[in-house]
Amino acid sequence: MNFAMMLFATVTLLGQHDEDYERPGRDAPQSPSEVVQALADAAAHDQEALFRYHLTWSFQEGVARLQHSPVGDDGTFAWPVFMGAVAADPIVAVEHNQFFERASVRATTQAGKTIKFDLALEDGRWRVKMPAGLAEQVKALEPPPAADTLEDDAATAPDESPGPGPVAVVPAEEDLGTPPVIAPAPAPRTDDDNFFAYGRPGHYVWYLPDYLFLAGSGALIAASELQLIRPPWVLIGPDYRPGTDEPKDVLDPRLDTLIGRPYLQEQISPYAILGAGVAGAIALGGIGTIRHRDFHHPHAFVLGAATATMLALDLTTVLKNSVGRLRPDFRDRYLRSACAGYTEAPASLDCTGATEDGFTLTNRDVIDGMRSFPSGHASSSFALATYFSLYLGGEWIWGDGANAVSMPLAALASGGMLAAAGYVAASRVTDNRHHLEDVAVGSAIGVGSAAASYLLHFDLDGHARVRSWSLSTLPVVGQGGGLALSGSF
Length: 489
Prior knowledge:
Largest sheet: 4 strands, antiparallel
Helix content: 40-55%
Order of helices and strands: HHHHHEEEEHHEEHHHHHHHHHHEE
Structural class: alpha+beta
Number of strands: 8
Mean pLDDT: 79
Radius of gyration: 31 Å
Low-confidence stretches: 1-23, 140-192
Strand order of the largest sheet: 1-2-3-4
Number of domains: 2
Shape: elongated
């Protein structure tokens, strides 16, 4: 597998040439095609500073992280490696397509191969972006030949093309003007003996806190739904004390606009939101599995989606049972239940005008009527829509996988999901289940929970975070030594 193609492999892009439209980037000092050609020229002349100048900051920062990772300890991700790979097969022709601040370049090499580059505008210049899954691609390469064989090959055949694995640049001796000799680099180091290392089953032990959180959240929500946890008072709006036979605020006609709305059949049930969330997680998780070809990425995505939703519902549940605000249809709930004998009521309660439309409400519905603030439908729907939108953004809008085709499609999908969440929130007001402030606060809780969960499981470029911990000895002068604990979360 050619390392240059592995390094810059991306999806095929569609679009129009830059000269056809007025778009951002038209006034850049160099066109995308010129930048790629300059990148290749810098590699051919071993000009590292100029080579890196044509790469995005995120590309350079990503390589720096890889250089300090276990897979990069052997120099696999050194800059001469990248330049040597690009220079090994010179580029003879380029053509580009541009979509606003993104561009793609199709380059043809001297050997007749096609390499695709993704570029982005940065500081007013076109720069090459890091391809997705670079570390995984390097790890998947075949192991190189033995070291002694490499030395013989380098001495006898300095002009041969590189082997199938990553390449290292070995400068020719006593002649700085000759091109560098390309030789395969050692295989990336793996830690197969560490059961808890990344890629091993024990690695997922570090996600135990997430699973415990989900279990605890499920227990809290179940206790609230079973009414094992109830609002003990009302902190906002008209008052109602469960078990009293003198609900004065409930029957006060001056409060019609606050709690005097009729009880209606809700348009969207919580099970519909749950079903949509599960379907979205399966669809995007499946695409992520195919795209990244590993378990870690979809695991982080699904775990993050569940965490975002449960965190939003946790906050909503605690507030619902602490604030105890009455729903807009609370009076109708109370009258239906009291007149049917399910809820304690004063003997003077007039039930002659009680509504008979087939809805039978009990004291359970009355208690649920004290949980108006905030809206659980709004918080859960916005948590899912926001989390899915952030994931789409990291994968196909601003992340490494963004291109001229994926950006508008992913943005359209994100907008559709957020619009659907907005519809769910609005329906809670028209269904007389919530006040406007309830859905506003619930929506904010959902957005905040989703953002927190996404950043816990992914970085801003859409890469799944890897959790790891290590315990090592640490020498201490004059005291023998100690233990050092390090990790990333």
